[in-house]
Amino acid sequence: MATPRFRSGVIAGFALVMTLVVAACSSSSAPKPAQGATGPVAAPIAIQPGSGAQDVDPLTPVQVNATDGMLTSVAMTNEQGKAVDGILTPDKTAWKPVEPLGYGHTYTVTAEGLTLTGKIGPTSSTFSTLKPNNQTKVYLTTTGGTPLADGGTFGVGTVVVAHFDEDIPDRTAAEKRLAVTTEPPVEGSWYWLDNRNAHWRPKEYYAPGTKVAVVANIYGQELGHGLYGQEDTKTTFSIGASHVSIADDNTKQIQVFDNGKLIRTMPTSMGMGGREVIAGKTLTFWTQPGIYTVMDKANPVIMDSSTYGLPINSRLGYKEAIGWATRISTDGIYLHQLDSTVWAQGNTDVSHGCLNLSGENAQWFFNFAVPGDVVEIRNTGGAPLEVWQNGDWGLPWDQWVQGSALH
User: Fold this and answer.
1) CA-CA distances (angstroms) from residue 162 to 141, 158, 240, 312, 396?
2) Statement to judge: residues 190 and 333 lie in one domain
């Protein structure tokens, strides 16, 4: 416990003397404010923000200070009478709340203290915090939209997505509040896919065992045009073993590597290629070349060609339940079971774009893969995979960093 600034006996004796002096010199006139050499003496208890302050940023420090003596009690409540917890310094000369303030509230702080001359206060301050026109919440997810679960394990190609539920007018202000730290340290950067989604990845794949911490400290921050952060968000996760799969259309095989060691080779049938114009929309049937990552998986998944413009009742249309499906693109490319094409797997491309596998291989891969694992597709036709399709790793690093609002 800290040594008191004065002994209680001294206070009692000093207070008695002062009481006698005041009694002898009292008068019916009101006392004048104490004057110092250059003006009024500072109030014995100071409260910030001052009474009457409006539109106070909820991150503004609230503090009560005893400029003389010590504080004996401090209470802070909102307009509904709910108490706000706080803490005194060991010497009891200062107090502050231990929880953040809310938007659009009115708070009252009341304090009392004790000096050598006796009790001081109560002194109070009533102020109100700003009420944003709009607020936004940020979600930290994979490119598949699933949460980056705190304490979870993800693949070496994991891309962090900061997804805002409102359009961000000031990307620079928002990105300044986003941070990714790793152990060991890696070089990385944010890339704004659009006004609601910022992606972060390292320059190279993570090393297995890397620890990653992500924070979005947006509460109380204006992100443009009166839009404020609703709350802070954070998560931590680890990088698991290096799972890299290479699908080569020249061989019609998928080689799966675990920490650099080839552990399985799976025959596949990829996109048949070509294009058709249906209802004025051009559809292609290639498996686009590029570096994908595992997004999510389901067993089974309902595949419906009408979701990308190919009517179910058309020549190439379909809607069916497909087993052991591992998704690697936003527009529906999967590695999945399709026993009806086992005859073609390893020699002929017959799919609409997915990578067909036997039931045994599809189930094995489904169980092996985790979100963030790398799947590289080589030597196929069609346009290269784009960033919005889950092609973050296909963008050269110098172009990736250009997508940062802070570049």
Assistant:
1) 7, 13, 21, 35, 21
2) no
Is 325 within 8 Å of 336 (Cβ atoms)?
A: yes
Q: Where are the alpha helices (DSSP H) in 135-216?
A: 171-175
407 labelled catalytic? no
Q: Are 336 and 356 in contact (CB under 8 A)?
A: yes
Which pLDDT does position 275 carry in this prediction?
A: 86
- Which of 104, 92, 62, 369 is CA-nearest to residue 243? 369
- Tell me whether residue 163 is one of the annotated catalytic residues: no
CATH of the domain at 343: 2.40.440.10
Give the pLDDT confidence of 253-279 residue by residue, as tens digits. 999 999 999 999 999 999 999 988 877
Phi, psi of 331 (to 5 degrees): -100, 25
User: Could you tell me if residue 262 is left (phi over 0), alpha (psi between -120 and 50 degrees) or otherwise beta?
Assistant: beta
**Half-sphere exposure (CA, 13 Å, Cβ side) for 284?**
12
Residue 10 lies in a domain: no
Does the pTM surpass 0.70? The reply is: yes
Q: Which of 163, 336, 352, 407 is catalytic?
A: 336
Q: What percent of the chain has pLDDT over 90?
A: 79
Domain boundary among 74, 98, 131: 131
The predicted pLDDT at position 280 comes to: 76
Residue ending a domain, choose from 110, 131, 152: 131
Locate tokens 């339940």: which residue? 321
Check whether 24 has a pLDDT greater than 80: no
